[in-house]
Amino acid sequence: MSYIILTNKADYQTDVQNEGLEIVETYEYYFFKQLKATYSIAKVIKDDIKVTLREEKDGKTYTNHIPLKFFEAYEKIEDAHEELGEIAGPDSESARLVKNTTNEITIPS
Asked: The whole model's pTM is what?
């Protein structure tokens, strides 16, 4: 079993509804009190899946189906937590990572 980190931002969204993934935890990243990204740690249940990413750019929608092998995998959830800490950096007055206790995905605007 392994874990991956899925990202949702204003300009691209990751489809977290996938029969091969189970969302374990979700975090929101705020920069100057504005939501900039949502990160979800997902447990990999089936490793032969593809993850769907949608990007909005120049009035067009681009959809990609990316095989799981292209995502960095973590053996333990603690390793995924450590990576999130690297991505977000230390909490400060201007930036912070907040755990979403409902695991609902909020898409930044």
From this structure: 0.89
